[in-house]
Specification:
The protein is mainly alpha-helical. The protein is built from ten helices and four strands, in the order ββαααββααααααα.
């Protein structure tokens, strides 16, 4: 005895599965595994995909991506700083991590890595070779913000990245946060280049992290949030800067100034064309910093 073939509809993605469900948008049959809950009924994966194409991704109050909630930028910054300290220990020995002097012997010693990447104006080394930013080693104005003298120095700076940095990355998004961090560090390093003796080394992530401290205050004021808890941290860091020997006062204050200016650009420039305005504002801040570096170079070479 022959059975009549089934006339029940089958899932368009799985022809072997009978179903009584259908996509509320295109009306194609879908099985339980393919259905996606919608405001009304169910939708198939293709209709959901097409619908998402017209949905703009969520943005923060300052135009940044919500990906900043994951903290990828902060993690990358910490990883780069750890990488430089590891390289410093490989080429300089264990005392590059601790026991080299400063802060009761808690800081690390200078190593070939710190000598290569620190802010250094213009002078001859003992072997007779000429080095420094004025000699064309412009990379020092960037690398110096990722170099720390030992584990304690690194821990102090990265604790600010892990706390204040994560907060700022959530508010600004990863790209705007990285822009803030890099401009603050760059500005602090240029200030050290301009105001330090030309044969003096200077390095540390604090040029950038000081910018984060002031940026939290600027961002919170823009959001009408209480900035009170951060102000004592700022005051403490300023007192620390002026009271502890061998601290780069120019680097710290330069990072504060550059961080404040960049944070103001990101926080107070609004729609329409907010991103374009922010790019132009940040470019102006960078141009002023670069002009200061070029003026210092011209002076050292004259």
């Amino acid at each position: 005895m022959n059975e009549a073939p089934s006339t029940a509809p089958v899932c368009y993605r799985h022809p072997s599965r009978e179903t009584q469900l259908a996509c509320s948008r295109c009306d194609r049959p879908i099985c339980v595994k393919c259905r996606i809950d919608a405001a009304v009924g169910f939708q198939c994966p293709e209709c959901v995909k097409k619908g998402n194409k017209g949905v703009r991704p969520a943005r923060t109050a300052f135009g940044g991506s919500r990906v900043g909630q994951l903290g990828y930028a902060c993690q990358a910054i910490i990883a780069v700083n750890l990488l430089f300290l590891t390289a410093s220990a490989v080429f300089g020995g264990p005392r590059a991590i601790v026991g080299g002097g400063g802060w009761f012997g808690l800081l690390g010693i200078s190593t070939p890595v710190t000598e290569w990447g620190a802010v250094f104006g213009y002078a001859y080394y003992q072997d007779g070779s000429l080095h420094g930013i004025a000699n064309g080693e412009w990379y020092r104005l960037v690398t110096a913000m990722f170099i720390n003298y030992g584990a304690v120095h690194l821990l102090l700076n990265m604790s600010l990245v892990a706390t204040l940095g994560r907060y700022l990355e959530r508010q600004l998004g990863p790209l705007r946060f990285l822009t803030l961090y890099l401009i603050a560090g760059f500005g602090g390093n240029v200030a050290a280049y301009v105001f330090h003796p030309q044969n003096q080394y200077s390095a540390g992530a604090s040029t950038a992290t000081y910018g984060l401290v002031i940026a939290v205050i600027v961002i919170n004021r823009r959001l009408a949030l209480d900035a009170g808890p951060v102000i004592p941290l700022l005051v403490t860091n300023i007192i620390f800067t002026f009271s502890v020997p061998n601290i780069s006062i120019a680097g710290h204050l330069g990072g504060l100034a550059a961080g404040a200016a960049t944070a103001a650009v990101l926080a107070y420039l609004r729609l329409p064309r907010r991103t374009l305005k922010q790019v132009a504002g940040c470019a102006l801040v960078v141009a002023i910093i670069v002009a200061a570096a070029l003026a210092r170079t011209s002076y050292l070479l004259s």
